[in-house]
Amino acid sequence: MADTTSAASTPPLKNELDIVIPTIRNLDFLEMWRPFFEPYHLIIVQDGDPSKTIKVPPGFDYELYNRNDINKLLGPKASCISFKDSACRCFGYMVSKKKYIYTIDDDCFVANDPSGKPINALDQHIKNLLCPSTPYFFNTLYEPYREGADFVRGYPFSLREGVPTAVSHGLWLNIPDYDAPTQLVKPLERNTRYVDAIMTIPKGTLFPMCGMNLAFDRDLIGPAMYFGLMGDGQPIGRYDDMWAGWCCKVICDHLGLGIKTGLPYIYHSKASNPFVNLRKEYKGIFWQEDIIPFFQSIVLPKECTTVQKCYIELSKLVKEKLSKVDPYFDKLADAMVTWIEAWDELNPTGASKAKGK
């Protein structure tokens, strides 16, 4: 009986999940998340000035990396990790040794459901990741595996087992994840709609992934969760998570994996400056008109049987097809290769898989 009680009180995936947080400031926001995050290990990636001291509330189990640590650990390969941009968070994915990752921004707080109850976002993400996805046939009741739901009439029985879920993409109340032009047109708009739904994004459909409330199975898709070259020294920002999302979706479609979006919600508390955002996004707004058709047209060869092989193939296609849009994509393609090399150095099991051993 004592063992049963102990098992029931153990947080799900306690020893199998890391929480990755990019930040430039003290992490006071963790106090609100303490009931949900305290049992888990945190990986904090400090952006900006490495001489600045970041304070973490007591009681949390964490490791903190700044730019000096990144340079020391990766050497010349540290060039693939963005500086002065939240894209630096992907370094945390690389150094983690856990199967699952949850990443959240430091301006995201605990949201309440319509009944007023605080939402344990992490718990819902875990449920999403441990539950199959259905990318090959759309269920009009959305998530068929939730309590009180099922597959509707006409859904093929041969597809009801689903596929492994690689990514759980959560949403946000209050400040929407808008681009700069939309922010400028709708400066006071707030998202107050709580939609109690989870759905699998269909195969062949891209989506704009947001990194502020995101969980994924590191073993299944980790090497593709590269947030690109953004921020300091780069001509673009704020496309880091979307780039990773497009790459992940194409690779998940190829490898037979699923991505879910919807619940859980967090409360996004701070709107970034739309004029600053416009400067960061300006080129991306034009480039995405070429980037989206590029990803929509990709067919990966059957020889690409691992995430690493898929990602290296993507890097070749980026260099071949997108470098004509701007020389930046040449540099990005090279960084994608460097990222995989660094990933495999720190995760030798993954390297063995990539080589087909």
UniProtKB/TrEMBL annotation:
Coiled coil: none
Catalytic activity: UDP-beta-L-arabinofuranose = UDP-beta-L-arabinopyranose
Family: Belongs to the RGP family.
Enzyme class: isomerase
Molecular-function annotations in GO: UDP-arabinopyranose mutase activity
Cellular localization per UniProt: Golgi apparatus
EC number: 5.4.99.30
Keywords (A to Z) from UniProt: Cell wall biogenesis/degradation, Glycoprotein, Golgi apparatus, Isomerase
Protein name, entry field: UDP-arabinopyranose mutase
Domain of life: Eukaryota
